[in-house]
Structure formats: structure tokens, C-alpha cells
Amino acid sequence: MSGGPAVRVSMESQCERQVQEVSLDGLETYVPPLSMSQNLAKLAQRIDFDQSSDSEQESREPWSALKFQPSLWPWDSVRNNLRSALTEMCVLHDVLSVLKDKKYMALDPVSQDPSTPQVFQLISKKKSLATAAQLLLKGAEKLTKSLAENQEQRRQRDFNSELLRLRSQWKLRKVGHKILGDLSYRSAGSLFPHHGTFEVIKNTDIDLDKKVPDNYCPLNVQIPSDLEGSAYIKVSIQKQSADIGDLGTVSLFRRQPKAKPGSQMWHLKLEAAQNVLLCKEIFAQLSREAVQIKSQIPHIVVKNQIISQPFPGLQLSISLCHSTGEKKIQRASPDKSKPDDHLYVLEHNLHQLIREFHKQTLSSVVMPHPASSPFGHKRLRLAGPMAYDKAEISSLQQSEGLLEKIIKQAKHIFLRSRSIQLQLNIGVEQIRVVHRDGRVITLSHQEQELQDFLLSQMSQHQVHAVQQLAKVMGWHVLSFSNHVGLGPIESIGNASAITVASPSGEHAISVRNGPESGCKVLVQFPRSQAKELLKSDVLQEGRWTHLRGPYREVHWGRMEGRNFVYKMELLMAALTPCP
């Protein structure tokens, strides 16, 4: 081939770069080539510096053989030590020769003062400690910031959850940066002018990193000062009127209820404030009606007390008792505790009546309808066929107020307390009857047994009424028995009987009342007025004529009077001679 012409051959690598991605249209994307520095770094990564070269291994093999070859004669260790000492002396000789010329190396004397290196050590230690302290301070500052952020986030998270719970129970609104709530009953129809606004604030007085108390709440409420504490309306009925100069100083307080486990303090605080607001609204309404209503005996309003007289000699007292918890005024001494004459039923009725008043304010049924047509011209208003006339509108406006209703209820309670003779305690399987004298009777669940007992008590009540009426009319009670052993036997209970005599002793009335036989009234007249009596040969003297004769039955159904007591009063009045 040496005689032929030279031929140039071009050679190139099959693929210099690798394919990185092939798109959907068949276009190939290659990996860019490495630069010289990247290629050098790639080649350097392939070198294993732990492995030595073959020449080094070959040079080390004789020494390693000598190192691990056992001693051939006893002076071998001495020879090795002498060789190492000779090597060190040669090195020392070379160093001294260099130092002698003072060209490349020089000797510096060592200071003998020991304080200088200690100062340097203290300075270096101080710098090291300062650096370490700076690092620790930076780390502590970062930890403090992190803890503060976590605590603020936790407090904000708890506040938001508690605020959501508060919002589900009370009416809230946001005014600027403040969160305000509403305690009033305006949405329920109240017309009381008090705003009843409270503010919701965040409780930041407790560190959450420390031990949190059980009653901790991240939310707190701030209520108006005049709604703090507790209040209630005290209603009492007294027979003796108090001195007017002492009125208005009623200061009877109840203990505030303790927080139940699981209940929020703000909930109890808001409920107490709303109750104070409602009590003030009730008392303001009663005071306004007491001034406006015209009655024969005017009502008295002094400070926090309203005095009314439903009956002559009877006093109805309505007082607003408000305690703020700061100080308590006690009129009575602690040794002499007065019994509680508060009528809780009337207090409950006042709350019910004010809620009905709120409902009527919102309701459109009780409001006057001027016309069935829309508001406009007067003729259009008068043309409505369903329009209210003047009488209907006046009847709607003439409704009883709270004071008139509560006075009627007080009258009813007083009249009922005068005629009640027993108390029924209805249980689950039995009924206990407590009499006024303390006797207790237990009845079963049978309805007939209770009915028979009430009939027996009604018959005895009429006989007791005759006894009380005789004392009022001046008649004398000759005999009285709740269980009469004479006469027909009653299938239900026993019959009662009483005999009374007139003040002069000439007439007598005997009453026998049974649950089944009914009432039977007999009248005994003097012997002188008895025409059917025959003259006796034995009783010849005139003094015997003053004795009473036989009994005559009274046709009780024909007597005048609305009830048994009125009829008996007319009978006694007819048999009592005029003075």
C-alpha cells in the first residue's frame, strides 16, 4: 500500500450527546455538553485516592517484609534504635547549620514571664465565651419570638372559638375595632330606652406557658356599671301597712349562683346582666302605670318600692332589689331574721306578663287597622269595608296594664289563702293530704278515694263555717262534733254536727251535714211560742215557759241567699231579737 495515493479518512463519534427527551412530534432534545471544568470535576470523581500506585506498593513491600520479619539475631533492636538516633542527630545537625547562617531561620529566646501567656489565654477564652454567648442569645431570642408567636396564635385561636360560641347565643356586631353585643329585648318587642350594650374583650392576663387555671376563659365581657350584680322583683302581701317614711329602703339580696362546671363565666355574667335589665324594665313599667292609673286609694312610688292597697287594711308591696356585690344594707339585725314573705308566683307572673307585652308590641293582630285599603287619600281610607270603627279602636286601646293585672292576682291569692283548709301533695303513686292543724292523710291513686275525701271535707267545712259565723254573730256554741255517732250511717266518711244558741238563749240552731245525706238544719223555739204543745199539769210556774221546745226542720232549699253562709247568716239574724 505504500505506492498508492494517500487517502483522508474522517472519523466522528456515533453520538456525542445523549437524548434527554423525545416530544410527541418526534423532535429530540439532547443533553447539553459539559464544560471543561465540569468535565474535570467528573474525571476527578473517578479517582480513588485511598488506593496507592503500583510503584508505591512495590517500594513498600521490602519494608513491610522487614517490618513483619521476625528478629534474626539478638542485637537487631539495638541496631534499629541506634539507626533512629543517628537519623535524628543528622537532622539536628542540618538544622543547626541552617541556623548558623541566619539566612533562612533564626532563633528567638523564650520569655520566662508566666503572666503573659495567661493574659493571652484569658483574652482568647473571653473572646470564645463572648462568641458562644452571642450565639446563645441569638438562639434564645429566636426561641422567645417563636414562643410568643405560638402563644399569640394559640390565644387568638382560643379567642376565635370562644367568640364563635358567644355569637351563637348572643347578638353581636363589630363597630370599628370593637365587638359589641346587645342585652336588651328590643328584638323581642321591648320599648325600654336602655341601650343594653356590652363589649367583648380578649383576656390577656394569664400566661399560657404556665399552669392555666380550670376557670380560665380567653374571652371576657364588659357590661355597663348599672347592670352589674343580680336583681329580682320582690312581691309581698302584708296586713299591716308600714310607715311611709321607711319606704324605698328595701334591700333584700340573694346569693349569686356559683358557676357550674363546664359553664362559661361570660354566659353567667350576661344572663345576670340581662335579668337586671328586665327587672328594671318591669319596675319602670309598674311605676309609670302607678302614677297614671287613677284609683280611690292612690298608689305610692318611693325609690325602689311601689305600695298599693287591694283591700282595706291590706298592703301589696312590689320592690326592685338590686345587689352590685360591693355593699349590702341590712335593715334587720342578724339575730332577728324575718321570714321570707316573698310571693314567687307573682314574681314569675310579672316576667310572663312583660313577655306578653313584648309579644303584643310585635304582633300586628292587636294593632288598630285604619282601613283595608293602602294609605293615601282620606276617602280611600274611609272606603275600606273592613275598617275599624271608633268603638273597636277604643276597645283595643283600653287594655289592662301590668299593675292592674298583678293587683287582681294578689287579690285572688289573698282570698284563696283565707278559705284554704288543706294542702294536696300529688306524688307518683300516692297523694298526701296535709290539714291546717298538721294532720297528714295518705291516699292511693284511686280517683274515687280522692273524690270521697273531698266530699267529706266539704261537709265538715260547712259545719266549721257555722262555728265561725256564730262567733261573729254573738251566738254560743253548745256542741260541736266532726264525727257524729247518731243518725243514719254515711257510706262516705262521717257526718258532722253543731248546735248553737242565740245570745238570749231562747232559740237554738242545730246543723247536721253528711257527705252523702247532705245538710239538715233544725231550729228550736221557746216553749211559749210553740202552739202545738199541750199544757202540762206538772209545769205550772211561768219560769218554765222560757225553756226551749221541740226542734222544727227548716226547708233549706227555700231560704234566701246565694250560698250556705249567707242563708245561715239570715237565719241567725231573724232569730236574734232586736235590742
Helix count, DSSP H or I runs of 4 or more residues? 11
The end-to-end distance, rounded to whole angstroms, is 185 Å
Sum up the overall morphology in one term: elongated
Order of helices and strands: EEHHHHEEEEEHEEEHHHHEEEHEEEEEH
Number of beta strands:
18
Mean pLDDT: 77
- Helical residue percent? 25-40%
Rg, nearest Å: 57 Å
Broad structural category? alpha+beta
Low-confidence parts, pLDDT < 50 over ≥5 residues?
62-68, 242-255, 327-339
Subcellular location: Nucleus
Family: Belongs to the Mediator complex subunit 17 family.
Subunit structure: Component of the Mediator complex.
Pfam families: Med17
Structure description:
This protein has 579 residues and is α+β, with helices and mostly antiparallel strands. Among the domains are: 171-240 and 263-325 and 342-360, no CATH class; 420-575, no CATH class. The protein is 38% helix and 17% strand. The protein contains 11 helices and 18 strands. The protein has helices spanning 36-45, 54-68, 76-101, 115-167, 265-292, 344-362, 378-382, 390-397, 402-419, 447-473, 564-575; strands spanning 19-22, 28-30, 171-175, 178-182, 197-202, 219-222, 230-238, 300-302, 305-308, 315-323, 422-426, 431-435, 440-443, 476-481, 496-501, 508-514, 518-526, 548-553. The strands form 5 sheets. Strands 14-15-16-17-18 form a 5-stranded antiparallel sheet, with helices on one face. It has a 4-stranded antiparallel sheet with strand order 3-4-5-6. The radius of gyration is 57 Å and the shape is elongated. 13% of the residues are buried. The model is unreliable at 62-68, 242-255 and 327-339 (pLDDT under 50). It is found in: Nucleus. Pfam families: Med17. Keywords: Activator, Nucleus, Transcription, Transcription regulation.
